[in-house]
TrEMBL record:
Lineage start: Bacteria, Pseudomonadati, Pseudomonadota, Gammaproteobacteria, Chromatiales
PANTHER family, sorted: PROTEIN YJDM, PROTEIN YJDM-RELATED
Protein name as it appears in the record: Alkylphosphonate utilization protein
Source species: Rheinheimera muenzenbergensis
Listed transmembrane segments: none
The Protein YjdM C-terminal domain, residue ranges: 44-111
One Pfam family here: YjdM
Protein family: Belongs to the YjdM family.
Protein YjdM N-terminal domain ranges (all copies): 3-32
Length: 113
């Protein structure tokens, strides 16, 4: 498995090194590997590998049991205006019918707008 970063332009995972540059065979984008290492902060990604940002809308990809309750957040539940935080549960949000909740990014998928 490659440890090279995905293309910053098209998010392709098929990047390769060409000397001091990283190349994307899908869109032709070239960038410096040094610049990526210096500015590459920890990015939070969803289950499909899309980078999440504050304010994004996501959908839940599997039924999630709510701790301390007998209720379940159903698959396909849309969650608007997420907030990214540090920790194991890296998304803070409000879900209609449940209230404030923390989710793991591995159980959501970003809604493409």
């Amino acid at each position: 498995m490659s440890t090279l970063p995905a293309c910053p332009k098209c998010q392709s995972v098929y990047t390769y090194e060409d000397g001091a540059l990283l190349m994307c065979p899908e869109c032709g984008h070239e960038w410096s590997a040094i610049a990526v290492d210096a500015s590459d902060e920890k990015q939070i990604r969803d289950s499909a590998g899309n980078v999440l940002q504050d304010g994004d809308t996501v959908t839940v990809i599997k039924d999630l049991k709510v701790k301390g309750s007998s209720s379940v957040v159903k698959i396909g539940t849309k969650v608007k205006n997420i907030r990214l935080v540090e920790g194991d549960h890296d998304i803070d949000c409000k879900i209609d019918g449940f209230g404030a909740m923390s989710l793991k990014s591995e159980f959501v998928r970003k809604v493409q707008e």
